[in-house]
Specification:
Elements lengths: L1 E8 L11 H6 L8 E7 L2 E7 L13 E2 L5 E9 L2 H10 L9 H12 L9 E9 L4 E6 L8 E4 L3 E5 L2 H6 L8 H10 L12 E3 L4 E6 L2 E6 L7 H5 L5 H18 L7 E4 L4 H11 L6 E6 L9 H10 L3 E6 L2 H13 L10 H12 L4 E3 L4 H5 L3 H11 L2 H8 L1 H6 L7 H15 L4 H9 L4 H7 L2 H7 L2 H10 L10 H10 L1 H15 L4 E3 L5 H7 L15 H6 L6 H4 L10 H5 L4 H7 L2 H7 L4 H11 L8 H17 L2
Parallel strand pairs: 13-14, 13-16, 14-15, 16-17
Antiparallel strand pairs: 1-3, 1-9, 2-3, 4-5, 5-6, 6-7, 7-11, 8-9, 8-10, 11-12
Helix pairs in contact: 2-3, 5-18, 5-19, 7-23, 10-11, 11-22, 14-16, 21-22
Amino acid sequence: MCGITGVFAFTELGYKAMELLPKAVAALQHRGPDAEGLFFNGPVGLGHRRLSLIAPTAAANQPFKSDNGRYTIVFNGEIFNYKKLRKELEAKGAFFRSDSDTEVLLQLYARERQECLKKLTGFFSLAIYDAEEDSLFLARDRFGEKPLLFYKDTDKFLFGSELSALLKLGVPREVDYTSLYQYLQLTYVPAPATMLQGVKKLLPGQSLYVRGSRVQENVWYRLPFDGEKAMQNPLSYTQQQAKLKHLLQQAVTDRLVADVPVGAFLSGGIDSSVVVALAARQVEKLKTFAVGFPEQPFFDETRYARLVADKYDTEHTELLLSNNDLYKNLFGALDSQSEPFADSSALAVYTLSKHVGQEIKAVLSGDGADELFGGYNKHLAEYRVLAGGAKAGAVKKLKFLWDVLPKSRNSFTGNKVRQLQRFAIGAGMLPQERYWLWATWQKEEEALALLAPEKRVAAQSRLYLARKGRALECVSRKHYDLNHVLCADWRLVLPNDMLMKVDLMGMANSLEIRSPYLDHRLVKFAFSLPASSKIDENLQKKILRDTFRELLPVKLYKRPKQGFEIPLLSFLQSEGRCLINEYLSDTFVLSQGIFDVQQVQRIRQVLNSDKAALVQTQAWMLLVFQYWWRNYIA
């Protein structure tokens, strides 16, 4: 796990960026505190920061050069099957001078070029310079666990693990208002866009080949999903369970590969509990970590995590947080975002990672299970829309009631009313419209109204429609069912929200977060299953619960999904109030010229009323953007 960055100069002017490379590497220090390396050769400069988990010796430091000097690699990630690949290479006459997965990857690339990526089990972003061809090859893993951003103009090509590195290399600091419009709906900017014009994110499963001044994009991996085939899966439910058990156990075993201790996040939900149960069989006194909010019981899951920790006798730590604790960690979390990211649970992940990172370097997590097996509330809602029936019809007819009743994410009753209202609205829509409604935090017209009038035309452009259309591809296909919604989440929500969150917040604290549910063999199998194996009227993530039922405490088997959230409203109305007053003030907004002053005023006013829950997310999105804008643009 590391941070990578680099320059490929096309002209004399482009060479000037090479002088800035040490600063770009320094901007990634948090991603790799154990070692630093630079490589220069003609038009190419590569930089690396290392977090040592496999082969933690100087012999494995990067940039890493092949014996013949032709290839040089900078690599961020882990290859869990590197020992098996190494044996295969040695059988073909290869010689190794280190014990690292990096060297295995480089030798494999030298023999098989891009095709080698298909043999890798793990996650990565990488850049390999070929001195003979004077070319640069870059690639990102199958599902976007590790980030890679890039920028190209007539003089140079730049890349880096985070936007902070590219900013140090001198990319233009011009806001992309289409990206801002998306952000105001989703709380993040979906790839391949970023918040800056001209800077792109490499898509999951994509590679780049740079030679001369040309950049060629390729797709080396596509999500193996065929909706019709999944509906006709020939395996019985018992056979499906047997295969899932084998694949997930193997995925957990693989992700325990390291030359340092590996622990686990334990949220109290099904996903991380299953991972801990499987890992505890292999690691004596497995270190597990949970975060809770004792002052806000609605958001606290620590009692469920404790049931699992006790059952498997793990070395368990509970990090119990107050609003004041969140405030103490707020600026660290915001400073780690070189692009605005307003999933508020990132603050809890940052705080937990800061604590855990002082003790160990890697943890397992349960990320991806909801998107594979239908764990979100919107998945159950989609199931009920497609199933129809009297209950769904009654909820639609009672929309007038849900519209007037109090709604909030901060209590059981208020949250239920909020969900019923969204169901009633979405049930009358086409699948694409419904998916977008349930994937976003505010409607398009609400997000547009937040922008200053002169910015709205730039935001709602053909480019926006093209980006939105890409996000909706999965739910625009024929023979539509719940699996198509999971496909859309896998391409939109998972890489751009969930995986971005754990990478940014984990690596801000030099902590690697690994999820067994992202093993590509498990993903392929899960997307071959019919929707009926994943969800029914009474149970979400059905096959996951049924397969591992005997490993779970009884209270967890039918426990409904609880999203991993923080008490955001309470925080904004207490310790966070001073920040709202500063960053959302009329003076700030007017001088900035991006947002509509009256709309921001309205959010401030509502935040101080009994309807504050209606605007808490909008206020947080604005606060995060404003903090970023002041730091990086103003």
